[in-house]
Design a protein that fits this description.
single chain; 6 helices; mainly alpha; 122 residues; 2 strands
Length: 122
């Protein structure tokens, strides 16, 4: 099992797919990395040589913001908005949708389980 950026990536999957298990690397960046290192798209992780795994690891460490650093940066960005008391920061603080979605109905993922209100029914 290859360990890249602190994540054990699955061995029986194609390299492009396995790299997406790392937070901050999606399909596009995974394709970019494999193209840059001349690794064929049909190659499986178990078929990679140690040198190729090392090259992937070094490329990700050097060129991409992933895992803990990326999570920390996103958290700091949200904290900054909350400290500024901007509209988006207030929405984050209240646990409501930030990007203009409706809240009269829906938004249950952000708001949590519905709480019944006595005497609401008409």
């Amino acid at each position: 099992m290859a360990r890249i950026a602190g994540v054990n990536i699955p061995t029986n999957k194609r390299v492009e797919i396995a790299l997406t298990y790392i937070h901050g690397i999606g399909r596009t960046k995974a394709k970019e990395i494999t193209a840059k290192l001349d690794i064929p798209s049909e190659r499986r992780v178990q078929d990679l040589t140690d040198a190729e795994v090392l090259a992937i690891r070094e490329t990700i460490d050097r060129d991409y913001l992933v895992e803990g650093d990326l999570r920390r940066e996103v958290a700091m960005n949200i904290k900054r908005l909350m400290d500024l008391a901007s509209y988006r920061g207030l929405r984050h603080r209240k646990g409501l949708p930030v990007r203009g979605q409706r809240t009269h109905t829906n938004a249950r993922t952000r708001k949590g389980k519905a709480k019944p209100i006595a005497g609401k029914k008409k």
